[in-house]
């Protein structure tokens, strides 16, 4: 994982070691976590950028950092912690660090028979199940409200959905859409 750095005249001015790449990628991993904790909408663009960097440079992460990043990303996606503008980048980063985790296990001769595809299928199913739970709960709540309202001949304004519930619902729907695109390449509309 060495990168050549070109100077202005086109010549090589040195190399960046895999250690520096790992440091930079590790910084982005910690940065997105910090930004997520702060829950500031002003940081969403920067958090998205950090996750894009993680997805592009995941192979430079050490195996422990890759596995930690993978579990954190999956957990936060299952909690619907990411805004809709960040969810796609988080899923791309999760796919990339999953590939890094599997290749690191194979390089270290760990008795892991898990393939990248199997690992991705595992977290896709877990996140999809969480989305299904959220959507099912919402439909159940609305159905119960409608049944109660019709039994009482309620002519009110309808069910009021709290903003935090609306946010989870939108994020769950957006997550389903983003997960369904994992493995597709935009240039040829085929699955990898």
Can you describe this structure in just a few lines?
By secondary structure, the chain is mainly alpha-helical. The chain has six helices and four strands; from the N terminus they run ββααααααββ. The strands form two sheets. The protein has a two-stranded antiparallel ribbon. Strands 3-4 form a two-stranded antiparallel sheet.
Report on this structure.
With 192 residues, the chain is mostly helical. It is 67% helix and 7% strand. The protein contains six helices and four strands. It has helices at residues 18-38, 44-57, 63-78, 84-107, 116-151, 163-180, and strands at 3-6, 12-16, 184-185, 190-191. Strands 1-2 form a two-stranded antiparallel ribbon. A two-stranded antiparallel ribbon has the order 3-4. Helix 4 crosses helix 6. The two termini are 24 Å apart. Residues 1-16 have low confidence and may be disordered.
Q: If strands are numbered along the chain, what order do they take across the biggest sheet?
A: 1-2
Average pLDDT number? 77
Total number of β-strand segments? 4
Order of helices and strands: EEHHHHHHEE
How far the N terminus sits from the C terminus, by CA atoms, comes to 24 Å
How much is the radius of gyration in Å? 21 Å
Structural class label: mainly alpha
Shape: elongated
Q: How many distinct helices?
A: 6
């Amino acid at each position: 994982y060495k990168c050549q750095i070109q100077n202005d005249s086109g010549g090589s001015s040195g190399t960046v070691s895999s250690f520096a790449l790992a440091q930079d990628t590790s910084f982005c991993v910690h940065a997105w976590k910090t930004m997520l904790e702060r829950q500031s909408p002003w940081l969403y663009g920067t958090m998205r950028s950090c996750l894009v960097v993680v997805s592009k440079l995941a192979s430079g992460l050490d195996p422990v950092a890759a596995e930690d990043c993978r579990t954190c990303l999956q957990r936060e996606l299952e909690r619907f912690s990411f805004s809709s503008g960040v969810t796609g980048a988080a899923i791309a980063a999760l796919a990339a660090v999953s590939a890094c985790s599997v290749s690191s296990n194979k390089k270290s001769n760990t008795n892991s028979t898990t393939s990248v595809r199997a690992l991705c299928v595992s977290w896709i199913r877990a996140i999809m199940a969480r989305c299904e739970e959220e959507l099912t709960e919402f439909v159940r709540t609305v159905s119960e409200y409608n049944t109660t309202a019709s039994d009482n001949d309620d002519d009110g304004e309808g069910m009021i959905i709290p903003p935090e519930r609306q946010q989870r619902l939108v994020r769950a729907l957006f997550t389903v859409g983003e997960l369904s695109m994992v493995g597709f390449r935009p240039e040829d509309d085929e699955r990898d």
